[in-house]
Amino acid sequence: MNIVKGFWRSAPVFRSSFASNYNTISHAIRPLSTTTTSPLSKPVDNAPSLELDKLYKRVELEMRGIDPAVLLSYSWFCIAAASHLGIEVTKNWALRKAEKERHTLLRCVHIYKKHRVQYEIRTYFRFIHLQRLTGSTCDTYLEYIERNLPEGCALKVTKVECQKLPEHFIPPSK
């Protein structure tokens, strides 16, 4: 009977051959999920106090890379992931020009000052602003996009957290 279970779940060809005997083998296949509806025995008196989740007003993502096409593709990926999690993306932009870093070196160590070589490194930037996030959603989203960060790219995250007003501030009296 175990062979029938494996075939039933995996291959439609085998399912069709067993379709006539479906009524006889359906009781042998277990459901994939079960639900239990047992009431709690007794409420817990010493329950720990719930820790409130952090709230972030804005999360800024700064992406740096050496290839603008890879950065554009990765920013689309980040925006798609945010939309699937229900995160509001307010801004998405790139700098117009790349940041250039030039290094000049002599070809020969000893002499020939006029024989120089210049090397240039271009760094491209993209920015994404996300608004109104909870701490757990932010952590999940950031872990997901960090794991899928392509080669040659760097990610910098800046969070602006909402905090409770300190107790020593008193509202103005009328």
- Please, what is the oligomeric state? single chain
User: Quick one: biggest sheet?
Assistant: 5 strands, antiparallel
**Strands, count:** 5
**pLDDT averaged residue by residue:** 81
Q: Look at the helices and sheets and give the structural class.
A: alpha+beta
Shape: elongated
Radius of gyration from the alpha-carbon trace, in angstroms: 29 Å
| CATH class (first level) name of the domain at 55-162 | Alpha Beta
Helices, by number, come to 5
Distance between the termini: 81 Å
Extract low-pLDDT stretches.
1-30
Q: What's the CATH H-level superfamily name of the domain at 55-162?
A: Ribosomal protein S10
CATH topology of the domain at 55-162: Alpha-Beta Plaits
Q: Provide the succession of SSEs.
A: HHHEHEEEHE
The fraction of residues in strands falls at 25-35%
Write the layout of secondary structure elements.
Elements: H1 2-10, H2 12-18, H3 22-25, E1 55-65, H4 68-85, E2 88-94, E3 99-106, E4 116-134, H5 135-147, E5 153-162
Antiparallel strand pairs: 1-4, 1-5, 2-4, 3-4
Helix pairs in contact: 1-2, 4-5
Describe this structure in words.
- The radius of gyration is 29 Å and the shape is elongated.
- With 174 residues, it is α+β, with helices and mostly antiparallel strands.
- It is built from 5 helices and 5 strands.
- The chain has a domain at 55-162: Ribosomal protein S10 (Alpha-Beta Plaits, 2-Layer Sandwich).
- The longest helix is centred in the middle third of the chain and has 18 residues, at 68-85.
